[in-house]
Amino acid sequence: MITPKKVLQFIEGHLKMFSDTFHILPLHEKEQVFYRADICKDTCMKLGYCQKCGCSLPGKLYVNESCNGGELFPDLMTAVEWEKYKEDHNITVLGDFPK
Fold first, then answer.
1. Which of 1, 43, 63, 82 is least surrounded, with the fewest CB atoms within 10 Å of its CB?
2. Of 25, 37, 35, which is closest to residue 98 (Cα–Cα)?
3. What pLDDT score was predicted for residue 98?
4. Are 52 and 69 in contact (CB under 8 A)?
5. Looking at residue 53, what is its pLDDT?
6. 93 inside domain
7. Half-sphere exposure of 57 (CA within 13 A, CB side)
8. What pTM was computed for the model?
9. Cα(45)–Cα(58) distance, integer angstroms
10. What are the C-alpha distances in Å from 23 to residues 12, 16, 26, 59?
11. Considering its fold, how many domains does the chain have in total?
């Protein structure tokens, strides 16, 4: 179902995804997008859309608000919050991300 909130999230996700193509997305957000994609690799990523909300991928991975209420992953965090989250949850993000 299309709602104003989903339309705004679609725009947000695609603008951030576009900024990522020009390597201007902050590294901590890029890592969180990668983390989200990894968590959903066997489900939503294979389908091409989010099983929780129905939004298209990969754009939905870039949206600040998590659609799963934190069940799979939280909202996008600040750089400081993300570093703490990685430490607390023993998360290592692998990849050579341009800065």
1. 1
2. 25
3. 46
4. no
5. 87
6. no
7. 21
8. 0.88
9. 8
10. 16, 10, 8, 16
11. 1
pLDDT (0 to 100) of residue 85: 96
Residue entry with tokens 């989250």: 85
Q: Which one-letter amino acid corresponds to residue 51?
A: Q
Tokens 């991928």: give the residue: 57
Q: Is 95 within the bounds of a domain?
A: no
What is the DSSP code (8-state) at residue 48?
Answer: T
Residue 42 lies in a domain: yes
Quick one: pLDDT at residue 57?
Answer: 93
Phi and psi at 33, nearest 5°, equal -65, -45
Are 66 and 74 spatial neighbours (Cβ–Cβ below 8 Å)? Answer: yes
d(CA 48, CA 25): 22
- Binning the chain into helix, strand and coil, the percentages to the nearest 5 are 50, 0, 50
In a domain, 94, yes or no: no
- Residue range(s) defining the domain that contains residue 40: 4-88
